[in-house]
Amino acid sequence: MNPKMGLNFYLTKYDLRENPFVDYSEVNMDTIALEIIPFISYSNISYYDTTANNQIILGLNTSKNNINFAGNARMFVAKWDDRPVFLGFLWSINFSKRSNWIIIEDPFEHDGLKVNELRILANPITHIYVTDRYFLEQLKTDKKLR
User: Fold this and answer.
1) Cβ neighbours of residue 137 under 8 Å, at least 6 residues apart?
2) What are the phi and psi torsion angles at 123 (to 5°)?
C-alpha cells in the first residue's frame, strides 16, 4: 500500500500554539505547512472503533508513548488518501461555526485506555465525516474497523 494512502496524521511544521482568542474554524487546512512524515501512520493503526457516541477509539500497533505529539505547540492535520479531512488539536478550541476539527485527548492522562489507544473526540458535525460510509468501508476492507 502507498504510504500516503489511508488515514495519516501530520503535525504542523510550525508552532500553532493554543490561543483562546483564535477562531480555529477560520483556518484553511490546505494552506498549513505539514511535516513530511506522519506522527500516526495508517500502517500503525490497528483498529478504529466508532461504537461510542461522538468519539473514536484509535488502536495503534505500537505504544502511544513512542509518538511525539508535540504537546500544545502544534496542531495536526489528518489526511485520508493524501487529502486533508480533519484539523486536529491536543487542546480545547474556540470556534464560531461548523468546522472539520477533531481533538485527540491528552494521550498521557490516566483515561482508562490501553497503552496503545487514543481517544478522538469530534463535534457532532465532524462525527458525520469520521463515520462516512466510504471511509468506514475502506477501514472495514483493511480489517481495521470495529
Assistant:
1) none
2) -70, 165
* pLDDT band (50, 70, 90) for residue 30: confident
* Backbone φ, ψ for residue 26 (5° rounding): -90, -5
User: Given pLDDT bands bounded at 50, 70 and 90, which one contains residue 128?
Assistant: low
Cell of 131: 463515520
Length of the chain: 146
Q: Checking DSSP bridges between strand 55-60 and strand 101-104, what pairing results, if any?
A: unpaired
| Secondary structure letter of residue 34 according to DSSP | B
Domain ranges (residues) in the chain: 7-141
Question: Quick one: average pLDDT of 22-51?
Answer: 85
Helices (H) and strands (E) in the chain, counts: 2, 7
